[in-house]
Amino acid sequence: MRIPRRRDWRPPRISIRFVHVWRRNLLVWRKLAITSVLGNLADPMMYMLGLGFGLGALMPEINGTRYIVFLAAGTVAYSTMNSATFEALYSAFSRMQIQKTWEAIMIAPLDLDDVVLAEALWAATKATLSGSAILVIIWVLGLSHSPLTLWIIPIAFLAGLTFGCLALVMNAISPSYDFFLYYFTLVMTPMTLLCGVFFPVDQLPVAMRAVAEFLPLYHAIALVRPLLSGMVPDAIPLHVAVLLVYAAAGFYVALALTRRRLLV
Amino acid sequence: MSALLDIRDLRKSYGSTEVVRGISLALERGECYGLLGPNGAGKTTTLRLCLGLTDPDAGSITLAGLPVPRAAREARLRLGVVPQMDSLDPDFTVTENLVVYGRYFGLADRTIRARVPELLEFAGLGNKAHAPIQALSGGMKRRLSLARALVNDPDIVFLDEPTTGLDPQARHLIWERLKQLLGQGKTLLLTTHFMDEAERLCDRLSVMDAGRIVASGSPRELIDDHIEPEVIEVYGDGAAEWGEEIGRRLSERCERTGETVFCYTRAARPLMQDLEARGDLKYLHRPANLEDVFLKLTGRDLRD
After folding, report:
1. Whole-number Å distance between alpha carbons of A79 and A156
2. In a 3-state reduction of DSSP, which class is residue B168?
3. pLDDT tens readout for residues B44-100
């Protein structure tokens, strides 16, 4: 009898027991939660408060919004992206390559498909925690009081899932930690500068604006920013759909490439 | 009842190199089956194939009654694995390692926690329940890996070189525990390149070389079938010359490695009389063992 070679691109098959891989990561995180949250908050807080108050004092209002509030929306989305990306690059790589955590799981009754899904959802969870922490600071500083801002929490999860899945593609092909630097210089930094974290996208030349509109961070910000100003975003289905498509495509490619890497 | 593991005509290539070249074997319930072979013989690849971690190019595998790789995930519910490299979770304590691992099998925390003291007792880690992994010695880590492999009370346990890198005390303790498991009716599949380990533990074994099984049987059968019953090892200056002149003539088979000559024979008397008469060569007369079979079948060349 001849068995066909494993097709790396076959559809995912998930066991509900994948939840326990997510729980494993949660349990580790709980041991280090305080330092982890502080570490996640420090960088975006500096940007938001430093630029928000410093630069904001020199700036006119943007579409009737104070600059610091405008920047706060960008910061929520940016910290969500960063948090998911770091988790799915450095932390996932440690678990896959250094600690052999994935290997241990794959000799239990779980497949790589379950592990990759759990990692993507865990990255989304970390992103939700980061986004929520920024949101709390926004509330404390009185930058927004709208109950609509609560919608930012599920959006942070969705955006985190998207950026987590995209980063897992990188994780699948990376020979070492050093490789991730390319992702930051070639993907993360341009995306941060193009997608309206620090200034409105319509300040950009038409060509650059067109590029920005294809990028997931643009759509995450398009959802978060109106909510912080107490408004319902325009074109919600479009923005959600773009994030979902990036997440699904990222997950599928990440899974196939990780299968190619590990299931040999 | 059908075999817990049944492998037929298994083949696997990497590029143009075929590393598993038509392996068939079936494990009977309650036995310890050994896969012996030099490095690169295909033992670990065979285990990975049986676990469903990689797809065979040809052949079939049935594990715990289920086809692998198609239903490998479900088949692994009944399986325990001690991997060659410890993959314990460094972020957790000893107990947490067992609890988190048990969850992967869908076991309730209550069930796992009820089992933990017994598992730790078995692994000789009763006083280490809350120790971090970093505080364990190599032998303790191996024993914890063994305990982890038993968290689901498996029918069959795969052990990939379970005592490599351990000191003699630690090895003996692992052997003791594996015998206990056999006493409980568990089925074991063991890869090793330690012949004493295989001889002690295995009911049956296969010697693999270059992706093939070159001999199978009980340790006793392999020794009886493949090799002369007595060995005389001769060393020191002049051993090589003695081997060429006398050893070769008086023994059935005579091999040399460096300064040592190995004479395989059914009648050691004449060889020993000659050596006694000379008096200048050191020698050791012993019964043939599995290592002699292994070296005969797989050669004395280094495998790197």
Report:
1. 9
2. helix
3. 999 999 999 999 999 999 999 999 999 999 999 999 999 999 999 999 999 999 999
| Helices and strands (H, E) in chain A, number of each type | 12, 0
**Six-digit token string for B28:** 């009977």
**What is the residue whose two structure tokens read 């209550």?**
B110
pLDDT at position A2: 41
Cα separation, B272 vs B270, in Å, equals 5
Quote the minimal CA–CA distance from A32 to chain B in Å.
Answer: 10
Instruction: State phi, psi for B129 to the nearest 5 degrees.
Output: -50, -40
Taking an 8 Å cut-off on Cβ atoms, the answer to whether A6 and B55 are in contact is yes
| Alpha-carbon gap, residue A104 to A94, rounded angstroms | 13
Nearest to A103 among B58, B83, B101 (CB): B83
Chain A residue numbers touching B106 (CB-CB < 8 A): 17, 20, 109
Q: What is the side-by-side order of every strand in the sheet holding B282-287?
A: B253-257, B260-265, B230-235, B282-287
> Cβ contacts (< 8 Å) between B57 and chain A: which residues?
2-3, 5
pTM here is 0.93
Transcribe A112-180 into DSSP letters: HHHHHHHHHHHHHHHHHHHHHHHHHHHHHTTS---GGGGGHHHHHHHHHHHHHHHHHHHHHH-SSGGGH
Report whether A149 contacts A179 (CB < 8 A). no
| Beta-strand relationship, B32-36 and B17-27 | unpaired
Interface of B with A (CB under 8 A): 14, 51, 53-60, 69, 72-74, 76-77, 81, 83, 85, 87-92, 96, 100-101, 103-106
Q: How many CA atoms lie within 13 A of A201 on its CB side?
A: 24
pLDDT at B303: 66
Helix (H, G, I), strand (E, B) or coil at A65: strand
Residues in chain B with CB shorter than 8 Å from the CB of A263 are: 53-55
Distance CA A174, CA A181 (A): 10
Residues of B whose CB is below 8 A from A3:
55-60, 69
Amino acid (one-letter) located at B30: G
Residues A221, A230: Cα–Cα separation, whole Å: 14
Percentage of chain B surpassing pLDDT 90? 80
